[in-house]
Amino acid sequence: MRRTLITLLLAASMPVFAQQPPKLEPLPEPPPPPPGMTDIEEPQVTIVQRGEDTVTEYRIRGKLYMVKVTPPHGVPYYLVDKEGTGQMVRDDTAPTLAVPMWVIKSW
């Protein structure tokens, strides 16, 4: 009985071992970006240690637009130049955890 069961299991699993991997074709090259999209610049990021704080400065074309200050103990905060005047304003509008609270059943 055991031998027939083992033989049946081996016979049923043989097609799985006999399968060949599919022949894959190389992907075509991506198309070029549309006109006007080639001048997008990535920000220059500078990380500086000031005292115990870690300060991350973000610049585009040499102009400072955002600073992230990470204290050793506490939550990081951001200073953002919202109007482009060079005056940094603290931005604490980072989303906090909002747990959805729906009424599922009431009686």
Automatic annotation (TrEMBL):
Residues 1-18 form the signal peptide. Residues 23-36 have a biased composition (Pro residues). Residues 20-40 are annotated as: Disordered. This is DUF2782 domain-containing protein. The lineage of its organism: Bacteria, Pseudomonadati, Pseudomonadota, Betaproteobacteria, Rhodocyclales. Keywords: Signal. The keyword Signal applies.
